[in-house]
Amino acid sequence: MADHPSTIDATTLTPGLKPVLTLTAIVLGVLGSGLILAPQFLAALYGAAVSVSGTSASRTAGAAIFSLGLLAWRSRKQPPATLRSTSLPVLLVWFTLKSIVAYLAVLNGVFNPPVGKTVLFFDVTLAIVYAYYLFNW
Q1: Which of 11, 18, 35, 100 has the most CB atoms around its CB within 10 Å?
Q2: What's CA 51's distance to the chain center, in Å?
């Protein structure tokens, strides 16, 4: 009976969630910063074409990704009720949609296969992890 959600301390994170949020924050913070500061380098790493409009779109995406990293970082100290109502759904939707985008990019040859498949694996894994914590916690 101790595992029933109503008996869990409302201020304690489930074991394992804080490291996941920390990893998410670091990866998204680094990726977002890279897209803002060095979009041409990341485009080359991913194997994508470089253009003026692509650079602008990369910087805009970088700002959004960096913001999601900040959300994950700040979420590490939020009570579980707040996480369930805000951060976890946002991160689940992000990684689910990002998985679809990454899959299509790999499928259509937009990304280099090794980099694209690594990104796809990371995105799918985190989508599953955030779904687990949102629906089973």
Answers
A1: 35
A2: 25
Q: For the segment 104-118, what is each residue's pLDDT rounded down to a tens digit?
A: 989 998 888 888 899
- Three-state DSSP at 49 gives coil
Residue 108's alpha-carbon distances to 35, 64, 79, in angstroms, are: 22, 24, 41
Q: What is the reported pTM?
A: 0.84
| Length in residues, the chain | 137
Query: How many whole angstroms separate alpha carbon 104 and alpha carbon 35?
Result: 20
In whole angstroms, what is the distance from residue 11 CA to residue 82 CA? 10
55 pLDDT more than 70: yes
Structure-token pair, residue 41:
């380098």
* Mean pLDDT rounded to a whole number for the chain: 88
Handedness of CA 4, 11, 91, 16 (dihedral sign): negative
- What is the per-residue pLDDT for 12? 67
Q: Which H or E element spans position 85?
A: none
Tokens standing for 85?
């109502």
Sign of CA dihedral 49, 108, 118, 96: positive
- How remote is the C-alpha of 131 from its chain's centroid? 12
For tokens 């999601």, the residue is 68
